[in-house]
Specification:
Layout lengths: L18 E5 L2 E5 L3 H11 L4 H9 L3 H11 E4 L1 H7 L5 H13 L10 H7 L1
Antiparallel strand pairs: 1-2, 2-3
């Protein structure tokens, strides 16, 4: 018996690096904003971006809770935390990794045409 995939009820702006995440029946949209990453890093006392990345993508409990709380841009983060179970950690790690990957996309060179016209 195949499980039916439910439609995601929140808008997700992939161009901004937003990623959809279900935690139980709670939909969230997360994004690795610099403010959110800074808050997670501070809370976890990370010494480097690599440490932050490893902890968020490595299904560490404290990092997962901090990531849900501080990287959620849409959805009920408190309901998600209340619904969180160990079975949700792999999906959280994948969503955090996808959101972080947005910062490393090669398409972030800016608007070359506008720069050339301004010169």
């Amino acid at each position: 018996m195949a499980t039916e995939k439910k439609p995601f009820p929140l808008q997700v702006n992939g161009a901004r690096g937003e990623v959809a995440l279900w935690i139980g029946d709670v939909p969230l949209v997360i994004a690795a904003t610099m403010g959110g990453l800074s808050a997670v890093s501070t809370r976890l006392e990370c010494k480097s971006f690599q440490d932050l990345f490893v902890r968020l993508s490595g299904v560490e409990a404290a990092a997962t809770l901090a990531g849900i709380e501080l990287l959620t841009v849409k959805g009920d983060r408190l309901a998600a935390i209340d619904s969180l179970r160990l079975k949700h950690f792999p999906a959280c790690a994948a969503a955090f990794s996808a959101a972080l990957a947005h910062h490393f996309d090669d398409g972030d060179e800016g608007n070359v045409e506008a720069v050339e016209k301004a010169a």
